[in-house]
Design brief:
- The chain has helices at 3-8, 11-16, 22-34, 36-56, 62-76, 99-157, and strands at residues 81-84, 87-90, 161-168, 177-182, 188-191, 202-210, 213-219, 223-224, 227-228, 232-234, 242-249, 259-264.
- With 266 residues, the protein is of the alpha+beta class.
- It folds into two domains: 3-56 and 98-134, no CATH class; 161-264, Immunoglobulin-like, CATH 2.60.40.
- Helix 3 crosses helix 4.
- The two termini are 61 Å apart.
Amino acid sequence: MDVQDIISSGLLELYAAGLASEEEQKQVAYWVKQYPEVAAELDAIQSSIEMYAHEKAVEPGSHVKEKIFAAINEAASLKTTLTESNVNEQAKIIPFKNSWKWIAAASIVLLLGSAAMNMVYYTKYDTASKDLKETKEQLAAVEQKNIEAKPWADVVHDPNSTPVSLKETGETPGATAKIFWMKNTGEVMIDASNLPDAPAGMQYQFWGIVDSKPVDGGLIITNDKGKKFLMQKMKSFGRAEAFAISLEKAGGNTTPTKVVSMGKII
């Protein structure tokens, strides 16, 4: 926990109000020794409490003090005998002449304690609100990924979909891809996310092998703003024997010059 977290935790206010547990008191004492900023903040809080107590102190009316003193004097007039270890000792009752001041002080402490607890609960509420916001953002991101992946999942599970794995030819290590050819429509979807990034000034191009001749199937997008492109629709092929990918100069070529992967329709 860094200094700012300590200051905003609410424990310093509890400590100053005398409401911290024994463990929390030890923790605050340790922080005060370790961090000058924490010590300064605690001093400021204690000064504020003292100032608040002075500003809000209320002098009780004379009739209130008279009633309190009368009750104290009445209690002081009673005598109680305590028996302990066969020794009788008369209980001593000490009247507090300034009890009304202690009552007023106790009221102030309770008020400050309530303020400190409110601050603690507000801090916890604020933290919970931030956690909830982060959770909602993460959930929204997951939902967005599901939306993006749904068309790909629909293609994979379509009964008319024929998967074709394109394996590397040795020209470019790791140049593999997978396509799904729709027998009923001739549409072709490609997952080229496993293709290595093309060198500067180069681009991958897709081909359909029809009657043993390559037919241009379009240029392949391997990433979108730095992110791997999940799925791309290529040109349709009513029929084909195989499919291939070549590495060409940016903009493509009329015929493949460097075939990096190929796969036959089984």
